[in-house]
């Protein structure tokens, strides 16, 4: 961030200096602005190339860092949501198992319970 501020301040200073020189030579109004813009642009291309390179590398690093953080945060958030869903499914399965468990028999397997449910529903049907 500091390199961006330094480079921008140097560009503004070059523009101000070029505008002052052009104004002293007699250019007025928009002509002075255009000439100062051209002169300061050429001067900054030559004089500020090292600062421009430093600024661009720091901006690129900052941008890459922001991208990595946002992707990482999204991955962490997605993993947390997935963990919550899995916990809810496990809780529901435990509750269902606790409700379906017969306290008297206690040792019945799930397949025996399913067979009993099927036979009871068939026996309850009216015979024609």
Question: What is the strand and helix layout of this fold?
Answer:
Layout: H1 2-24, H2 29-47, H3 49-100, H4 110-123
Helix pairs in contact: 1-2, 1-3
Account of the 3D structure:
The longest helix is centred in the middle third of the chain and has 52 residues, at 49-100. The N and C termini lie far apart (87 Å). The protein has 128 residues and is an all-alpha fold. The chain has one domain. It has 4 helices and no strands.
What's a quick, concise take on this entry?
The chain has 128 residues and is an all-alpha fold.
Count of alpha/pi helices: 4
Q: Taking all residues together, what is the mean pLDDT?
A: 80
Please tell me what the overall shape is: rod-shaped
Number of domains: 1
Termini gap: 87 Å
**Biggest sheet, in brief?**
none
Poorly predicted runs are none
Q: Rg, please?
A: 38 Å
Structural class comes to: mainly alpha
**What fraction of residues sit in β-strands?**
under 5%
User: Helicity level, as a percent range?
Assistant: over 70%
Q: How many DSSP-defined strands?
A: 0
- The ordered string of helix (H) and strand (E) elements is HHHH
Pick out its properties.
single chain, mainly alpha
